[in-house]
Amino acid sequence: MVVLITGINGFIGRHLSRILIERDYVVQGTMRSHVELISDVSKIHITEDIGPTVNWKPILKNIDVIIHLAAHVHVMKQTSNNTAYRHVNTLGTEHLARAAAAAGVKRMIYLSTIKVNGEETIHTPFVEDSPTSAEDPYALSKLEAERSLFQIASQTGLEVVILRPPLVYGAYVKGNFYKLLKLLHTGLVLPVASTKNKRSLVYVGNLVDAIINCIMHSTAANKIYLISDCEDLSTPELAIRLSAALGKPARVIAVPTALLHLLGTVTGRLNTIKRLINSLTVDCSKIRSELDWTPPFTVNQGLKDTADWFINDHNS
Fold it and tell me: Is there a domain that residue 208 lies in?
């Protein structure tokens, strides 16, 4: 089976391609430049832009399954407007799906985001049927892409599978999780000991395993699945476990959440504070029951792998 991974040299793509090759899939990929070639990949296609103008016809020849990871991603303090996100995440995805249908591709797996459901859960975790509540241009562009994919699937023979992960962590992680690793490694105190929230995360090894499970499983066709490690952590729990994985003492102190809110407002970092103290959980029961999927790695295993990579990267 020939699988095309868009964004193959990204954080998730490099993990996914390695495991697929180990499982004897023929892997092709797209990336924006030959910055870093990936060994044993059958073919690399250079696409400077993954928007609605890409000529996918020669790239999709003999492709059985597409795993669409490439995206204009959400970054804190980013000034990109909705047009920039829609160009790649919505219009680019729709264009790829139509080209895939025309080329006879059987299935397209789309990596969306739990942010299409919202930024916070209050009493119960998100499930696949929860109302959508995209709160920023990135999430909205992903939600619009999902809707376009289902419309195309209903009009063609292309099967689509949509995965909505929360924050993904693992070796090569960037963004806020990498910043947390740096803070804990340097021994800075985190004012989160009194936080009673719960957050769902997903280790990249678990996400990759779920993606591969969606390649062949007939039940997955034209479905949405929420994905996580299926073990939620409070922010203090995450800090303590990650510190242990780093071989560092956990340094957390109790600061009232109201004061943290105030500090976030004053410093212009309220969204960052909310991600530390609010809850965001997902129910992964559907993918477990319908696809008979179980996370192959525990949270502690995922955190240890991430910490080991960070230490090696930090010392190199």
Answer: no
Number of domains in the chain: 2
Task: Assess whether 172 carries a catalytic annotation.
Answer: no
What are the CA-CA distances from residue 160 to residues 4, 107, 148 (Å)? Answer: 14, 6, 11
Mean pLDDT of 128-145: 96
pLDDT digits (tens, 9 = 90+) for 56-89: 999 999 999 999 999 998 654 454 568 889 999 9
Last residue of a domain, one of 143, 164, 185: 164
Taking the C-alpha atoms of residue 156 and residue 54, their distance in angstroms, rounded to an integer, is: 20
Q: Which position among 25, 85, 110, 138 bears the catalytic label?
A: 138
Distance, CA of 93 to CA of 6 (rounded, Å): 11
266-286: b (≥16 Cβ within 10 Å) or e: eeeeeeebbbbbbbbbbbbeb
Contact 91, 152 (CB under 8 A): no
Classify residue 188 as exposed, middle or buried by CB count within 10 Å of its CB (0-12, 13-18, 19+): exposed
Distance CA 166, CA 13 (A): 17
DSSP secondary structure of 155-212: HSS-EEEEEE--EEESTT--HHHHHHHHHHHHT--BS-TT----B-EEEHHHHHHHHH
